[in-house]
Amino acid sequence: MLAYGGGWLDRAAALRGDPGWLAARLTDPASVLLPLWRDRCLVDAVRAPVRPAVVDAAGLLAGADETVFLGLDEGRALFAVDLSGRGEGEACELAGAVEAVDVRALVGELGAAEAAVLAYAKGLLHWHRGQRFCGGCGAATVVGSGGHLRSCGGAGCGRLLFPRIEPAVIMLVEAPGEPARCLLARHRGAAEDSWSTLAGFVEIGESLEDAVRREVGEEAGVAVGEVVYQGSQAWPFPAGLMVGFRATAVSTRVRVDGEEVVEARWFTRAELRARVAAGRPLGRIDSIDRHLLGSWLDARA
Ligand SMILES: [Zn+2]
């Protein structure tokens, strides 16, 4: 399973709009509070996500900038608590934590679904911090639906703001014909021998397939024909949704943009397997990049 996927939480959309129900969940000792500080997870000494509800839930909630409802885990409510307005030491003390750690740094130690919940919490709290004021009239916004909505309090405005995601496409581009080869790129700032798939944000007015063709054209100068969906990955760093494709090029001539991509070339399966055997990483450990490359390698002997 891809990291940050397979979230098992019941998001309880029909219940989270009820303030009385939410208030009761917040004071229920069985509920779990996940404290975060400026996009980082507050963890205890063994790097398990802290369970401060058993320490001092009331103190934690009183010190929070924002508390949002994430969902129900077998009937038990989970909340994310934002302590970003505090200093790091104070946030740790409130949560009973020893340090604040990037969620991505915990991926190797957590199950995919557990990482999914932390990433969800981080992404939702990040959105709230950037939506305190209405973009239409400038008045302050207030939280609704347990944190899944903000509404403008400005006179005569009432604009509703919903959590945003920013879709990006990521694609493994195959050469036409034989031998089978895929296009990998070396991005600006990446290590000398670091090759990865192409990716980019979807622009307004584009379909996902349009974005695949545009990005491959812009970054590598390669024209693409068929585009086939492979899977998607939540990527709330801070607000992404990665949508993975396999695309077939119509020609093999490469001309990189020199901006985002400094070099791009075609690799056969044998070349990629040799890199793996030599200990070179095949994509990032928590990314759909690795899944796209791995499934292409596994497709044929
Ligand atoms: Zn407004």
Give a verbal description of the structure:
- This protein has 301 residues and is of the alpha+beta class.
- The chain has 7 helices and 14 strands.
- Strands 9, 10, 11, 12, 13 and 14 form a 6-stranded mixed beta sheet that branches. It has a 5-stranded mixed beta sheet with strand order 3-4-1-2-5, sandwiched between helices. A 3-stranded antiparallel beta sheet has the order 6-7-8, with no helix packed on it.
- The chain binds zinc ion.
- Zinc ion binds at residues 134, 136-137, 139, 152, 154, 157, 159.
- The site of zinc ion (ZN) has 8 residues, from loops.
Task: Calculate Rg over CA atoms.
Answer: 22 Å
Number of helices: 7
The percent of residues in helical segments reads 25-40%
What would the principal axes of the Cα set say about the shape? globular
- Low-pLDDT windows of residues: none
Structural class given helices, strands, pairing?
Answer: alpha+beta
Q: How much beta, percentage-wise?
A: 25-35%
Mean pLDDT: 92
Biggest sheet layout: 6 strands, mixed
Distance between the termini: 23 Å
- H and E string: HEEHEEHEHEEEEEEHEEEHH
What oligomeric state best describes the polypeptide chains here? single chain
Small molecules bound: zinc ion
> Based on DSSP secondary structure assignment, what is the total number of beta strands?
14
Features:
26% helix; binds zinc ion; six-stranded mixed β-sheet; alpha+beta; 301 residues
